[in-house]
Amino acid sequence: METLFSGKSTLILDKKLEDLQSLRSILGILGFGDVQVASSVNMALSMLRERPVDVSFLSYELGRGEKNGLQLLLELQEEEQRRYSACHVLVIEPEKSELLLGSPENAPDIYVSKPYDRARLSQQLEKLMRLKQSVKPVEQLLDQSEWQEALEQCDRQEQLYPGLRVYLQRLKAITHLHLDQPEEAYRIFGNLLEGRDQPWIRIGLAIAACRSGVFASAREQLDHVISQQQICVEAFVWRARLHRLAGELADAQGLLRRAVVLQPTVALLQGDLANLSAMNGDAALAVDSFRSAIRFSRYSAFQHPDYYFGLVRMLLQRINGTGDDAARAAEEEAIRTLEQSQRDFLDQPVIHFRSKLIANEVYRRAGDRVRGDQMASEALELFQSLSLDEQAMWLDQLIEGLEGTPVAKLAQEGRQELTRQSARLHWGRDNLKGMMHYRKGELDEAYQAFTSAYRQQPGNPSIGLNLVQAGLEQLRRSDKPSRRILADCDHCLYSIQYAALTPKQQQRYLGLSQRLTDFVGAF
């Protein structure tokens, strides 16, 4: 007999064979078709990249030191692989599920617990799948990133199913965030909060508030959620950002330390803690956190080369050329980390160039000038083999990294010609326009040009710092400072991995961060 479950594909993420077999048997009886199994988040992620499923059952407890099932949703979202139209079921003890309700976008659809009860599970799944059928026209559009069409379809579905208003309003608010319309998302989440007090509404409201520059409202919402012991990645990340924005680096660091105690396998939290610790001068904690960020981000969308380079820059502080045990251990770990970065990003020549460039600094700091000179020469050779686009992006780092080396003059000689050639690139042209407008005092034009360049090269530190400097100068001269410029400057600084910057860039970064803090405090 045909049922709602007939032929539906399923993934079970669990390490306990007996529980896995029990669930698999129940799903077979209910009529589910293809059933895949995975024993780790990375394994499940790999399988879902190849073949998405209709329903996933994700065990929260996968063992000490292992990513939990909830993280799979976060990593799918980061990769833009999560399907809104799929059903995501988290398998967790009932008392713990109450603490995981905070995410507006990355939460599971329902929670179930062990031991599995066929009748109850069937009832829960049937209710969920009927809901999914009702909102299918909207969620299919979201899966295709057809954001504007999804908004219009939400309105139509709300007319057909007024009982699903809250669910559809949540999707509308999320869609406005994807469309970079945080003010509209803020309005929707605010209206929802008037009708019901749920952690996911408060966090959605806080995210929209941060992105709109309404920081006081965001602080209020996040403090309320965190005080309720909610274990939500977004709550900790955004509240730490607000601490940092206010210049409260110690508070931000303390909050993230608490977060990684609760969720030690979340690479995003470990990476944010590492960068904050570096900014706060706590090199020991930064080193430990970068190690964890590297470990738990591997084979996922959170794997970031700057975690490796950030770790090496922190280890550089321990290398003093004396040859003592601590310095020697730091040097060895730094070189191993750089070699690992080249293996983990094997097909990215830029990473190999950056590895050689910072290896030059490691050897020089250790007093090994011969190897340092060799790394400097290899870095320049690799740089010259990069595309024009890549060379233009990393020129500033090359010049600073090769200072004091035998090839420094060669790097400088090509600087003017490369700067001229970069005008052939769309982002390079926008960046040059921004600099020219800035020098003339044309701040609106400069800010727009840098914004355009940064959108084409997100995360590029040179452009990002230019953008923030132009934005802050525009705010300084404005009679009515823009909240969105404040929010955009904060987003830009957050997107740049502080610890991986060169020393000169770090100095500039900290100066701009302090200026931004001063503006927010006076706003």
User: Major sheet, described briefly?
Assistant: 5 strands, parallel
Supply the CATH class of the domain at 1-135.
Alpha Beta
* Derived structural class: mainly alpha
Radius of gyration: 25 Å
Total number of strands: 5
CATH evolutionary superfamily of the domain at 1-135: Response regulator
Mean pLDDT across every amino acid position: 92
CATH topology of the domain at 1-135: Rossmann fold
Strand percentage lies at under 5%
List keywords for this structure.
single chain; 523 residues; Rossmann fold; Serine Threonine Protein Phosphatase 5, Tetratricopeptide repeat; 5-stranded parallel sheet
What does it look like?
This protein has 523 residues and is mostly helical. Among the domains are: 1-135, Response regulator (Rossmann fold, 3-Layer(aba) Sandwich), CATH 3.40.50.2300; 304-424, no CATH class; 435-523, Alpha Horseshoe (Serine Threonine Protein Phosphatase 5, Tetratricopeptide repeat). 68% of the residues lie in helices and 4% in strands. It contains 26 helices and five strands. Helix 15 (305-316) runs parallel beside helix 17 (349-365). It is globular, with a radius of gyration of 25 Å. The model has no long low-confidence stretch (mean pLDDT 92).
